[in-house]
Amino acid sequence: MNILVTGGAGFIGSNFIYYQLEKHPKDKIICLDALTYAGNLDSLKRALSEPNVTFVKGDIADRQCVNTLFENHKPDIVVNFAAESHVDRSIENPQLFLQTNIMGTQVLLDGCRKYGITRFHQVGTDEVYGDLPLDRTDLFFTEQTPIHTSSPYSASKAAADLLVLAYYRTFKTPVSISRCSNNYGPYHFPEKLIPLMISRALHDQSLPVYGKGENVRDWLYVKDHCAAIDLVMRHGRVGEVYNIGGHNERSNLEVVKTILKELDKPQSLITYVTDRPGHDLRYAIDPTKIHDELGWLPETSFDEGIKKTVRWYKENRSWWQSILDGEYRNYYDKMYGDR
Ligand code: NAD
Ligand code: TDX
Fold first, then answer.
1. Is residue 223 a part of any domain in this protein?
2. Does the annotation mark 127 as catalytic?
3. What gap in Å lies between CA 221 and CA 236, rounded to an integer?
4. pTM of the complete model beyond 0.85
5. Rounded CA separation 24/72 (Å)
6. Measured in angstroms, how far is the CA atom of residue 193 from the centroid of ligand 2?
7. What total of structural domains would you count in the chain?
8. How many angstroms separate the alpha carbon of residue 335 from the centre of ligand 2?
9. Is the pLDDT of residue 338 over 80?
10. What one-character DSSP code corresponds to residue 282?
11. Alpha helix (H) ranges present in the chain?
12. Ligand of minimum distance to the alpha carbon of 271
């Protein structure tokens, strides 16, 4: 089987490639990635030495590049991780999110139509459902929850999901979509909450918590997400959406305090900064469908996963330090300088 993994040099995509190599060593993997600020070939070092992994640098919105890739590599399955993924950046520059997340998805879908595939799998997000109130812990996102987006990022991901479903209905393209809650684990870019807090705490720098730190996210260890995507793209029903989450809800403040405890650093590092505009209050996934249909269950509890993650960041300092020393530093100063 030939599997085209777009965005494979990013956080979840790189973890997914390692998961595939372990679980399906006979399959051939072609990684298409534009290597934006978030793409990092260092994350794929071990994978790229495998004979069944090919890397192609290119943009999913570049039709010529995508068509050539289909002609050369004849993928059976296309799994689309490539995206602009950071909510704060989408508030600064929505246009890029529309270009990559919507137009890019459309170009890939056209490639699938033109050349034929057995499955196009779209890696989606729970953010398309908007948010839930903090005081209604009985409520969860199901696949029937209406789309109700808050940020340019989530709006672009929702538009992409709708396009994917439109290609299924109109052109019978064999698609599936998964919508996952917040991931964490190795190779997570240090602009996102957990790696940002770990890397800053290791430098004894202040930890910028938005608002009062009360917002709740439903955390899933990245390997559990990779296992779920693998099941859906191979065995999930065509035309269906599957929610993925492990019932690990934590407030941001709880997460930051857990990290500080793990690192034996003082809580005085916590600094409350101006809230994110439009900040979603609470995400919480109901994963009943993927469990009942495909038998998926997460293997890693939050307590275990956060320990593993903190250890990984301590042991792989050069991976994130080189990011912090580069262009990213200007972004951090711009984002947090006047907050
Ligand atoms: P990431 O930002 O770490 O990685 C994105 C990757 O896509 C990078 O390697 C980047 O270079 C590449 N890319 C960006 N634009 C591209 C383009 N035009 N053409 C080709 N490659 C391009 O993101 P991530 O956190 O790994 O997220 C992967 C996917 O999972 C995204 O679609 C995201 O919406 C979704 N998702 C993420 C989470 C999460 O918690 N991180 C949760 C649910 C869903
Ligand atoms: O400095 C920070 N301080 C802070 O309090 C940052 C970067 C974040 N936060 C808060 C905002 C959120 O409530 O932490 C929470 C998590 O923030 P992010 O790591 O930016 O993630 P989020 O906005 O929840 O989106 C993530 O999960 C869903 C991914 O980035 C998306 O790609 C995915 O779809």
1. yes
2. yes
3. 21
4. yes
5. 22
6. 5
7. 1
8. 14
9. no
10. B
11. 11-23, 45-48, 63-73, 87-92, 94-97, 105-115, 152-171, 193-202, 222-235, 252-263, 288-294, 302-315, 317-325, 328-336
12. 2
Please give the distance, rounded to the nearest whole angstrom, from the Cα atom of residue 87 to the centre of ligand 2.
7
> What are the tens digits of pLDDT across the range 116-137?
999 999 999 999 999 999 999 9
Tell me if 326 is assigned to some domain: no
Q: Is the pLDDT confidence value at 329 over 80?
A: no
pLDDT of residue 294: 98
Q: Is 18 a catalytic residue?
A: no
Give Cα separations from 166 to 66, 109, 239 (angstroms): 20, 10, 10
* Atom in ligand 2 nearest the alpha carbon of residue 85: 32
Tell me the CATH number at 28. 3.40.50.720
pLDDT grade for 142, boundaries at 50, 70 and 90: very high
The tokens 């870019």 sit on which residue?
Answer: 189
Q: Half-sphere exposure of 62 toward its Cβ, with a 13 Å CA cutoff?
A: 13
- In this prediction, residue 339 carries a pLDDT of 74
Answer yes or no: is 267 within a domain. no
Q: How far apart are CA 233 and CA 118, in angstroms?
A: 10
Ligand 1 atom nearest to CA at 61: 18
Going from the Cα of 49 to the center of ligand 2, the distance in angstroms, rounded, reads 33
Task: Identify the pLDDT of residue 335.
Answer: 83
β-bridge mates for residue 299, sequence order:
none
Annotated catalytic residue within 33, 59, 126, 218: 126
Q: Which atom of ligand 1 is nearest to the CA of 13?
A: 26
Evaluate whether residue 22 is within a structural domain.
yes
149: containing domain: 2-188+219-248+277-300
Query: What are 215-243's pLDDT values in tens digits?
Result: 999 999 999 999 999 999 999 999 999 99
Q: Is 196 in the pocket of ligand 2 (CB under 6 A)?
A: yes
What is the reported pLDDT for 336?
A: 85
